[in-house]
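Suppose you are handed a protein chain with no further information: no name, no annotation, nothing but its sequence. What can you learn? This example shows the usual starting point.
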Amino acid sequence: MPEAQAVPKQQQQPQAALVSKFKRIELYATHLVNEAVSKEKAGRLGDAIVDYLQAADLLLLLAKGTQDYTPWKAFSDRAIACQQRVRVLIAKRKLDEEAAERGTSA
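A reasonable first move is to predict its three-dimensional structure. Written in structure tokens, the prediction is:
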């Protein structure tokens, strides 16, 4: 009987490690988003863009690694939100640069 109980434990350990790894990646992606927001508020748009893109990459990795629809959708939506924010920041940075050029050439 002890042998029959050992098989499920062996199967659970890799699955538990995988869940733990997924959770750590998710926490890091959340940290990157929070850092990006802070950098954006501080006016460091380039640094914020980098953090948002890294977070989006991690979230897409998490989405790819899940089999269930609900977490896949949540990760995908968060990644899309990061990518959309990057587009906004790139446009804002471009407008700021153009305004600066007009200010120096006037």
